[in-house]
Design goal:
The chain is α/β, with parallel strands linked by helices. The protein has 7 helices and 12 strands. The relative contact order is 0.10. The chain has 2 domains: 148 residues, no CATH class; 94 residues, Spore Coat Polysaccharide Biosynthesis Protein SpsA, Chain A. The strands form 4 sheets. It has a 4-stranded mixed β-sheet, covered by helices on one side. A 4-stranded parallel β-sheet has the order 11-10-7-12, sandwiched between helices. The protein has a two-stranded parallel sheet with strand order 1-3. Helices cover 28% and strands 22% of the residues.
């Protein structure tokens, strides 16, 4: 494998490795020796077939149903739910097993061959993003990727000195709570993750106001303009994040 890796680097050529198999079942749980993923791999795509949803947890639909049952908590013979599949995919001994620490983690929900299955898949996205950097919804049968969902970070700019207003506008009461707290809560409720609050002139007061919500990032250069706060926020966003909202 090391020789293949070096050749791929020399030729700037991607290498695709099938790390395990499912015996043509839409769903599976890995054996003790699976998956076999080399340490140099930079992206891992975990596949799951949505055709297995609603079907009984047995050997006809799931490769290693006993193991799937153990990881998901779902009894054998019980129809496989989206939540049970999500439990297996995000389990350290399930879908996340054997993935190198620095690799990008992607889960592909394949066989989304109907609008109903596509809708079901979208309902699983938020839970899956807790363990994966991206979630795809696709149909190999139709030759189409319907959606790719990634984590979107939020940045709340709360560093200003509010000189024209005469008081910290970040701390003004809005519907019973400080304005900065209201904005931070809305960002979190919208599904942005992680959410960073950039502080400046009123660092301690803003930090107290957000009350542990969001991640504080202080901008010591806040007086040089809003662009420095934007830059400070960008510095905090993890590299695997798909985008950001300010």
């Amino acid at each position: 494998m090391e020789k293949i890796r070096k050749l791929a680097e020399r030729w700037n050529c991607p290498v695709l490795i099938e790390a395990d198999g499912s015996r043509q079942r839409p769903l599976k749980a890995p054996a003790d020796h699976e998956p076999v993923i080399p340490g140099f791999v930079d992206t891992v795509v975990v596949m799951a077939g949505l055709a297995g949803l609603g079907m009984p947890l047995d050997a006809e639909w799931v490769h290693r149903p006993e193991r799937f049952s153990e990881l998901s908590g779902l009894g054998l013979g019980i129809p496989v739910s989206g939540s049970a599949l999500g439990e297996v995919l995000t389990h350290p001994a399930g879908g996340l097993k054997g993935i190198p620490n620095n690799a990008r983690r992607v889960v592909m929900l394949n066989q989304a061959d109907s609008i109903a299955l596509q809708s079901h898949a979208r309902g699983m996205v938020d839970g899956l993003l807790a363990g994966f950097h991206a979630v795809g919804i696709a149909s190999l049968k139709q030759g189409e990727v319907f959606a790719m969902h990634e984590r979107i970070a939020g940045v709340v700019l709360a560093a200003g000195g509010s000189k024209r207003l005469g008081q910290p506008k970040q701390l003004l009461n809005w519907h019973g709570k400080p304005f900065v707290k209201h904005v931070t809560d809305m960002a979190l409720e919208a599904g942005l993750s992680p959410v960073f609050v950039v502080t400046g002139a009123f660092k301690d007061e803003v930090g107290e106001a957000v009350d542990g919500e969001g991640v504080l990032a202080h901008n010591p250069q806040w007086e040089e303009g809003q662009s420095t706060s934007v830059q400070r926020g960008l510095e905090e966003i993890p590299k695997e994040t798909g985008g950001s909202r300010f």
